[in-house]
Specification:
alpha/beta; disordered C terminus; about 20% strand
Length: about 300
Amino acid sequence: MQRVKVGSDMIQVHDLHKHFGGFRAVNGASLTIETGSITGLIGPNGAGKSTLFNVIAGVLKPTSGRVTMAGEDITGLAPHELFHKGLLRTFQLAHEFSSMTVRENLMMVPAGQTGERLVSTWLHRGRIRNEERALRKKADEVLEFLTISHVADEKAGNLSGGQKKLLELGRTMMVDAKIVFLDEVGAGVNRTLLGTIGDAITRLNKERGYTFCVIEHDMDFIGRLCDPVIVMAAGDVLAQGSADSIMKNEAVIEAYLGTGLKNKVAAEIAEETAFHESHGAQPGLGAEAGNGGDGKPAGDL
């Protein structure tokens, strides 16, 4: 697959809507994912993140709006059509073929294999053997890259949650994807394997030019990997920027906490500060409030 120039727009979403009856899951969202980026997509539950993924990836048809990939209109294309263009997505729950080995799960990914046609199994056995040999070699390289070569012959259904997420990432490598949409890659994954997944994403981005868009609730993971981070709320884009700026954004904090809880937290902080100041602390000392200059409580000798 031909790579798109880094810095250009890989995906553009224009005024996208997806309605389910009277419910507007995606409500006029517009955003850009730059080629060569690892873009984070966050937001409270029900913000429309997964629905947006499903519309971009062709799982759902949009109610209105437009999606382009490297300048080409891909609105409403089916997943298998987008697959051939290099756009792939993973799901919150891994979709492995549980009775097949890990290696076989990878080998079956590339489309158009000679052995898929019944007549070819009689007429082109040599070609099929050569293709399978090449696919096995590539699958083993992918497993080595992802540091899970030790489970190559294990049934995929026996893998842990994190290993299944790595297997899904490996599938994208079997076809040299251009952009991969990862939906809650950290769900059900222990911290060690999540670190391995993060390392693999970073390497694929830097070494092979993959573009990623990642939905994730783990802000440490997002902060480590993603720039920029896009925030959705109520079906639309609320904010965009670096992870640090997003975590300090008042509108984002309100979207996650709600106005009432946000005001309650602010009131509790103000009350605690006033208490410390009334007991001899200087205003604005934060964690030092209530202490004397030597770190002891005010009034102590």
